[in-house]
Amino acid sequence: MGFLSVLSMAHKWIAERTAPGDTVIDATAGGGVDTLALAGIAGANGTVYAFDIQQEALDRTRARLDAAAREGKSGLAGVKLVLRNHAHMAEAVDADAAGRISAVMFNLGYLPGGGDQSVITEPSSTLAALQASLTLLRPGGIITCVLYPGHPGGAEEAAAVEAFAAALPQKQAQAVIYRQLQRDTAPYLIAIEKRDAGV
I need a surface site. Which of 41, 96, 106, 179 has the fewest CB within 10 A? Predict the structure, then answer.
């Protein structure tokens, strides 16, 4: 049968911690695959914020959402597409949602499918976004971060995210890795669950 892919596992962990009507964040909209999945998880009364620094990514995400609607997929959350670096997510999210977000999803690297592959997520902004995510999450909320060590710059970013997660005090958050051990460059998943409201 095989194990779940890292993306499927991220979606599973988010779904387990998100209730219909919740607000969730896609920190890296990309082609919209995760945004659509999050919209389904949060449900018709929920909200998804989807961030990206490339208008092409947000256009692809909008097209994917529109196609899902045309195909009759119902019960999706409202999606707010935000052309902004994810490091500044706390400034873009409605003030009353701070401390109430149930999940933040990161799918790092570059825009797949013909995008400019020189435009990649970078450790400095990703770490700032992870810190912002912790302030936005409710206790029991989750951050999932899919890492791609196989592309230029990816291994350095993955190492930075691992170090960030490993340094979190356990009373504030717990962190786990989901990874295929036989391939060093395979994508892998780090998840952080917030424990303490004071983070």
Answer: 96
Q: How far is CA 94 from CA 35, 138, 178, in A?
A: 18, 14, 32
Topology, domain 6-194: Rossmann fold (3.40.50)
CB atoms within 10 A of CB 16: 10
What are the structural domain ranges in the chain? 6-194
Q: How far apart are CA 121 and CA 150, in angstroms?
A: 14
Phi, psi (5° rounding) for residue 62?
Answer: -60, -40
Strand pairing class (101-107; 23-26): parallel
Burial of 17 (0-12, 13-18, 19+ CB in 10 A): buried
| Rounded Cα–Cα distance for residues 29 and 61 (Å) | 7
CA distance 109 to 30: 9
Strands of 101-107's sheet, edge to edge? 78-83, 47-52, 23-26, 101-107, 137-147, 188-194, 173-178
pTM here is 0.95
Each residue's pLDDT tens digit, 42-98: 999 999 999 999 999 999 999 999 999 999 999 999 999 999 999 999 999 999 999
**Tokens 């499918």 belong to which residue?**
113
